[in-house]
Amino acid sequence: MKRCLTCISALVLSVGLVSAPVSARDGVYAKGDMMIGAGIGIVPFIPGAHFDIAVHDMVSVGAAMGVHIPWIDIPLIGRGAFHPFYLPPLRDKIDVKRILDPYVGVIAGISIDPGDDTPVLPSFGEFIGCRFFISESFGFYAEESATWPGEDLGFLSGGVVFKF
Prior knowledge:
elongated; 11% helix; mainly beta
């Protein structure tokens, strides 16, 4: 009986979180929003952070950095992302944009490794990710990235995101 009540409570809470509007706006992403994320990259293990600002209804720009563990390798990356839920033909048809913000983008920057023969290498690639907001200003993110010549921010990363 206790397990059944726990399941019912979790279901009611989940439905409440998904159906409750996060804000009075049309979605969780809008021009002028600033987002800061902090998390962990895996393959390899890389703690990192990123900052993004929405410069258009469908475009954000920002920066990211991390530190490769156990050696010292510091990627400094610029990034630009496209947010497809806000395309005019889709704007009124996707209800989950109140809590989800999927995006795809490109990254370019440098990777600094003071112990290497070539201490500074250029780096570029792509990323795809999604943010899930549980309140107007707090949520979680997950990203996949592929960079050349290495795995600057980890192939997979995830963490928390704060919106201002």
